[in-house]
Amino acid sequence: MPPRWALPLLLVMLAGCSGTTKSVRLHTGHGEPTILTPTSGDGAPVELDEDDFVEAVEALTQSVRPSPHPQDAARRLFEVGSRSGAYLYEPRVHRVIPLGPGAHLEGEPPTTEVELTRAYLRWCERSNKPGDCLRILVETSTVTGDGRYALAMALAQGVVWEEMMDAFKDLADPQAVMAAVLWTWTTYCILLAVPEPLSKGVAAVMTASLIAYVGVDTFWSLIVGFKRLVEEAEQATTFDELREAGERYGQVMGRNAARAFAMLATAAIGNTAAGLGAKVPKFPGASQAAVQAEAQLGIRLAAVADVGTVAVSAETVTIALAPNAVAMAAGGKGGGASAKTRPTGYKAWGSFSGFKKAMGPAGQDKQWHHIVEQTPGNVTRFGPQSLHNTENIIPLNKDLHTEVSALYSSIRHPITQSYTQTVRQWLSTQSYEAQREFGLLAIENVSKGLW
Predict the structure, then answer these.
(1) What span, in angstroms and rounded, lies between the C-alpha atoms of 272 and 277?
(2) How far apart are CA 347 and CA 388, in angstroms?
(3) How far apart are the C-alpha atoms of 283 and 359, rounded to whole Å?
(4) Which of 267, 298, 308, 450 has the CB geometry, 3.0–4.6 Å to 330, for a possible disulfide?
(5) What predicted TM-score, i.e. pTM, was given to this entire model?
(6) Would you put residue 3 in left (φ > 0), alpha (ψ -120 to 50) or beta?
(7) Pairing between strand 95-98 and 87-90?
């Protein structure tokens, strides 16, 4: 088997990370970094309905133009080099040189590789997709290197794979799109599975968005699980062993995380960081993800494109981002308070007076503000603890708080499409998630003078 010399040497971190206290460090380039410690168990994958997922992926594929070389396209998307496949060793200069696409070493490949490749082609045929259905053999004649990981990932996706094929069924070449998604997904995981992984550009936006959708704990589990998948794929000598490795990783992912991963991978194909960031807030489940992004990461999902880099270690996710991307409850931008003044984890009270008694004053020249308002109707519909808690009540500058309250009491036809209802009346019949999303948008737009 041609040597896959680099990747196993790089997969040494995160082995024991599941038992550590994880934190998120936010760098905005102004002052000291903000440190958040999400409470273990608070974050969980956003629940995604099958129909919503299929519809979203189908819409995303309308702008996808799959490359005939999906593995190379994924490497260029994430700005990473090849770490697998066939290599030549040049003794004179002591260099290991990767062979280009279509180039092969002389001599016959090992029997295990040949048998694995035949089994892969038989699997494609049994799946009614004859030939190299995953485009694994574009750069090499056998299933080896990153191709093993891609095949294992395909086998890991289970029912989500069928849902994606349902979304792709009306495309001219659904297999080409599926291969593009698979290689994007696999290459991104490889990027995160190296020591001190640093993602930037599209990968950084994808990382922050994925954490928003699955939570910090699940995100770490995905990395640790993929590390195990790589090790098992390296050791596999049969298709069945590769299938078992993939299915084990599928259990680690779970259906909701796999759906979120698939949406992000599809949206990332051929995109830019700004383009991907603009798509994420429109995904199904974005309202829940926005809440989780603030609570677990301290960032606003609507500004995820402003994330510059994301570095992952065994204990910390370090995010460098523009100041306006920081959630108000985490960073102080637009009237927020430092995360250091908040209690650890999520806390809720049965009344606003109980909240104020526990939390104290909002701060100098600040007032406490409910993102989802504490109207009698909302108390009846959602319960007091869903309103009087550390994720729904934030400190705002007095002037900004007054302006936001005035907005809710006013009639704004461009917003509500009504000439008789106030913004508050129009909003009162909507879901908790919709009211929260609007509440965050209102704070942002009022602070910018747009509303």
Answers:
(1) 8
(2) 9
(3) 34
(4) 298
(5) 0.64
(6) beta
(7) antiparallel
CA nearest 202: which of 262, 264, 253, 256?
264
Secondary element (H or E) of residue 359: helix 352-359
pLDDT tens-digit profile of 352-381?
988 888 888 888 888 999 999 999 898 888
Query: Which residue from 407, 428, 408, 411 is spatially nearest to 419, judged by alpha carbons?
Result: 411
Q: Please give the structure tokens belonging to residue 302.
A: 């609507």
pLDDT tens string 97-156: 444 544 444 445 678 888 999 999 999 988 878 889 999 999 888 898 889 999 999 988
Beta strand spans in 128-283 (E): 198-200
Residue 65, SS3 per DSSP: coil
Distance CA 377, CA 414 (A): 24
**Structure-block tokens of residue 35:** 């440190």
Which is nearest to 285 in space by CA: 308, 265, 256? 256
pLDDT of res. 202: 92
Question: Which residues lie below 8 Å from residue 224, measured CB to CB, with a gap of 6+?
Answer: 14, 15, 17, 18
CA atoms within 13 A on the CB side of 421: 13
Task: Say whether 198 sits in a helix, a strand or coil.
Answer: strand
Q: Identify the CA nearest to 387 among candidates 403, 373, 401.
A: 373
Bigger pLDDT: 360 vs 418: 418
Cβ neighbours of residue 207 under 8 Å, at least 6 residues apart? 192, 199, 307, 310, 312
Q: What is the CA radius of gyration of the chain?
A: 24
Q: Coil, helix or strand for 375?
A: coil
Q: Residue 389 pairs with which residues in a beta bridge?
A: 348
Please, which residues have CB within 8 angstroms of residue 33's CB and are 6 or more apart in sequence? 25, 26, 27, 318
Residue 311 has φ and ψ, to the nearest 5°, of -115, 135
**DSSP characters over 269-321:** TT--HHHHHHHGGGSTTHHHHHHHIIIIISB-GGGGGGEEEEEE-SSEEEEEE
Indicate the pLDDT class of residue 40, thresholds 50, 70 and 90. low
